[in-house]
Design goal:
190 residues, mainly alpha, 3 domains, elongated
């Protein structure tokens, strides 16, 4: 006879583990564990902790306002202790995205989605743009995606020109930048 399948932790598949009741200490432990694994903004960490709170409140009951106070106090404590810093996060993320060939538009969008304030986004974008221009980022992206002059088969370059321009436009680059990269050569500009 077949044995019933077991999920993670010996539970039947599709059943979730019952969440523990949240407390200030359990939220701090969860936050520290999360920050060990991921770089995060204050907003992002609060979202993660509030999901945990909401799961706990559905099962155990309690006051959401009280738990929200715990989350806010914990975020303030982590900021004071330097364990979470939106400025440093934005600097690191903007630099790594730019180095991978992302446009200023995409970088700004990703940082805003993580909860970084608009003035910090603008400041970090200005800094990474001085380090690596939009044209150079577009060239990196085109090389990664094998667009235009970086196609394996140079004979198909002209017939795929519109697709390549569209791909750079979807990546957030302006038409003039995309046209310059797609119509240019594979050599690096001086």
């Amino acid at each position: 006879m077949d044995e019933p399948k077991q999920g993670q932790g010996g539970r039947p598949p599709g059943t979730q583990k019952k969440p523990r009741k949240v407390s200030p200490r359990s939220l701090e432990n969860a936050a520290l564990h999360y920050l060990k694994r991921y770089a995060a903004t204050v907003s992002q960490l609060k979202r993660v902790l509030m999901r945990r709170v909401d799961r706990s409140l559905r099962i155990h009951g309690g006051e959401r306002a009280e738990a929200l106070g715990w989350v806010d106090a914990l975020a303030d404590k982590l900021i004071r202790n330097g364990l979470i810093n939106d400025q440093a996060y934005a600097e690191m993320k903007a630099h790594s995205l730019r180095a991978s060939g992302r446009s200023a538009r995409v970088i700004a969008q990703k940082l805003r989605m993580k909860g970084v304030s608009a003035d910090v986004v603008e400041q970090k974008l200005a800094r990474v743009t001085t380090e690596l221009s939009e044209d150079m980022a577009a060239r990196i992206w085109a090389r990664k995606k094998r667009l235009g002059p970086f196609r394996r088969d140079a004979n198909t370059r002209q017939e795929n020109r519109q697709k390549d321009l569209a791909a750079l436009a979807r990546a957030g680059f302006s038409f003039s930048t995309a046209k310059k990269i797609i119509d240019g050569g594979p050599e690096e500009p001086r």
